[in-house]
Write a structure and sequence with these properties.
By secondary structure, this protein is of the alpha/beta class. It is built from 15 helices and ten strands. Helix content is 48%, strand content 14%. Strands 1-2-3-4-5-6-7-8 form an eight-stranded parallel barrel, surrounded by six helices. A two-stranded antiparallel ribbon has the order 9-10.
Length: 376
């Protein structure tokens, strides 16, 4: 009887300690999420490119750009990293390309010097994701890469350096992605005990993917989702995604039904016209966006986890500036009303907050800065 009592007492103490430890980790994640309130994506720099030469990365986004990000009022930068050049030969003793890694180090350290937090985001191209989706051997390789990268950046300030497991994993099986993410998170935690991890749902990291994902057992985790709804507006004129987007331009936001007849005729195919017509029929406006954000916020509250939206934006080349600013303002204010930190897509790309030619000073889009509630 005495032994049973001792065992019960031991289990009770152990469970209490585990709960207390989890509570401390969750508190750390909530505290550090305050560094990720108003961020910007540094895209097409160390990811989304066919040229990762030092010459190009050195002029695409430079020290002046990083200083400008801080000056504009951003508090963090999401640094996208393609794993392919990071794993390219010749590799150093740590299994990573030393020259490419040194350039990443200079970027990360410049951001930290400007008091910007850094979301280190593994941002693969389609073939890499396809391998992770279908091959356990590829998952082993991906886990090893993260163990090495986390160990490397564990030497920086854990209050300001965050590890995002993978951008939009495109794994349609949520159970497979949950297992991959849990495994990679454990490897990161072994290599970097103090840093906060950023986790996401399967597929394209939308709100519906967030709502379907389980909470990780690790408490020091921030969860993220992406928001580009409705794509009929945010991706008008885009040459990727739905084939008919390339025909559309000047789609207004909020939706204005009296403009629908002329604009749907931009699309030659009748079935695609019907898809575009639904943009007006669905009555997209700030109220609808707020209700969607409320769903994401409710998931986070239910699971007692901090939540951010580290991608949202509207393609600027074919959208009317006033409509684009309306959408950015509605999304940003909806996120802030629900206490969700945000990171806009992107700094100088097709969704950007600045206009810039390589090697030249950036020209700030003041209207975007205003829509984001920042001060130039």
């Amino acid at each position: 009887m005495f032994h049973r009592f001792c065992l019960a007492l031991f289990l009770s103490v152990a469970l209490s300690a585990a709960a207390q430890d989890d509570s401390t980790q969750v508190a750390t994640a909530f505290s550090r999420a305050q560094h990720l309130r108003h961020g910007i994506n540094a895209s097409e720099w160390f990811a989304q490119s066919s040229d990762y030469s030092a010459a190009r990365t050195g002029r695409y986004t430079d020290a002046g750009d990083i200083a400008l990000m801080a000056k504009l009022g951003f508090d963090n930068v999401r640094l996208s990293i393609d794993p392919a050049p990071l794993e390219a030969d010749p590799r150093g003793a740590d299994g990573m390309n030393a020259e490419f890694l040194a350039r990443l180090d200079r970027a990360v350290d410049a951001m930290l010097a400007n008091r910007l937090a850094v979301e280190i985001d593994i941002h693969p191209e389609g073939p890499y994701k396809q391998q992770v989706r279908t091959s356990n051997e590829a998952v082993d390789r991906f886990t090893t890469l993260w163990r090495r990268l986390a160990a490397h950046y564990a030497t920086r300030d854990p209050e300001k350096v965050f590890f995002e497991i993978m951008n939009e994993p495109e794994v349609s099986d949520p159970y497979r992605w949950a297992g991959i993410q849990a495994r990679v998170a454990a490897a990161i935690r072994e290599a970097a005990p103090r840093n906060t991890i950023i986790a996401t749902g399967p597929n394209y990291s939308g709100i519906v993917d967030l709502l379907a994902m389980p909470r990780l057992s690790d408490g020091n985790v921030i969860y993220t989702f992406h928001f580009y709804e409705p794509h009929e507006f945010t991706h008008q004129g885009a040459g990727w995604g739905a084939t008919w987007w390339i025909y559309t331009h000047d789609i207004p936001y909020p939706a204005s039904e009296n403009s629908m007849p002329d604009l749907v005729r931009q699309v030659p195919d009748l079935a695609y016209r019907f898809a575009l017509e639904n943009y007006w029929l669905d009555r997209w406006d700030g109220h609808r966006i707020r209700l969607m954000m409320d769903e994401a916020a409710f998931w986070a509250k239910t699971n007692n986890v901090p939540l951010i939206c580290n991608e949202f934006g509207a393609y600027r080349e074919y959208s009317a500036p006033a409509s684009r600013m309306n959408w950015l303002r509605d999304v940003r204010t909806a996120l802030e009303a629900d206490g969700i930190g945000w990171t806009m897509w992107d700094y100088r790309g097709g969704f950007g907050v600045v206009y810039k030619e390589d090697g030249q000073p950036a020209r700030v889009d003041d209207a975007v800065v205003e829509a984001l509630g920042l001060k130039k």
